[in-house]
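Continuing the series of single-chain predictions for the mutant panel. This is the parent chain; the variants come on the following pages.
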Amino acid sequence: MKRYYVLKYLLDTDTLIYWLKGNQSIEEKALAVGLAQLGYSVISHAELYFGAYNSLQKDKNLQAIQLLNQKLELVNFSAGPAQLFGKIKADLKQQGNIILDADIMIAAIALTNELTLVTNNAKHFIRIPSLSLENWVTG
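Parent structure:
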């Protein structure tokens, strides 16, 4: 697969939320690998906005998203990940392993761009073959 970014890691929505809430383990790992190696998907971006607009601290959370967007590369969901999404979803459905479309989209973005997905939600993502996973919350 062709790699479109110089990134190494794609941070999942849950990891981003832990980081924004001050998780020290994620902060240390992010600084150790370098912010230039980190990205997050437009899917996670949308999920963060939903969380912000649905929260009691809307302005604070919207500001946190803006700061995050200044630090990290935003990785789009384009034609390559869209095609892979369709294949992964069909394969999972045939196996009886349904997971959320958003998670499949995030996985497709990571796979298409040869990125390691950083998540604390491995129970969903381990169902997707060849997806490289790391958990920075538990170490």
